[in-house]
Model the fold of this input.
Amino acid sequence: MSIQERIQDLKREKNAVILAHNYQLPEIQDVADYVGDSLELSKIAARVEEGLIVFCGVRFMAETAKILSPGKKVIAPEYAAICPMAKMIDGETVIDMREEYPDAVFVAYINTTSDVKAEVDLCVTSANAVRIVSELPADKEIVFLPDKNLGKYVRQETGRTIHIFSGFCPTHNRMLKEDIILAREKWPNALVVSHPECIPEVIELSNHIASTSGMLKFARESHAKEFIIATEQGMLHRLKKENPGKKFYSPSALNICPNMKKTTIAKLLHALETEKSEVDVPEDIRKRAIKTIEYMLVG
Ligand code: CIZ
Ligand code: SF4
Done:
């Protein structure tokens, strides 16, 4: 019996569902019931009937699913898979910043720990950050955290007064303007599609800026046949799978998130067998954090 078949058998036996982020290894994506961005997956976790959620991604994503589905058991096959950007800020820092900007609306990217979500006013993803920020009352100043690149992109798109925290995604930050220029020379007919976690110099050279779910939509609907994809490399697997007639290239060999790649198929099987490394969020934090996430669920 193959490892994939064992996973499928155990999943049925235990009434489990496997969720995988768009940046996961191809073999994890292929065995998952659902593949998506963090918010899509959390919504699915809340909706499905299965009581056991196996979340293949990084910790803040599994925590977000747990916040929305407290009655279900959420396990992370690799507990050590964390997002370094989410680790750049904690709840205490938000409390301190509130003293500095007492009248500001605090907006957090979904890539944050639960204690940060509990301290802010709103939570956004890369798919809805521009829309949600532009809908805030015009006289309100905004603090955006933790990602400085997404924050700058939102500021540019909305024209709002935004104070930005200095966090960043190491994986997206490694992609440079020169990588895009060289990729364009190599594939002159390709459109450059970048994630807003990329540095402003990369954003500036791009034809389209989108979250991972936005990239899938753009690739599906575009008449173009070739795309240079400036985001974590795992994204290319799904783009290629869903668009067999189109070509997708990576502008860099370095845009791999080591934490996203910690979840292997063997660890996934082990997690299903043992149901260890359960993800939990303390109830007081969960109750405060859910308010900031619920806001997004309607959008
Ligand atoms: O929200 C997510 O899943 C992340 C981290 C990226 C994206 O653009 O989907
Ligand atoms: Fe965090 Fe960047 Fe890895 Fe996403 S790709 S989990 S933002 S470090």
Q: What stands out?
A: The mean pLDDT is 97.
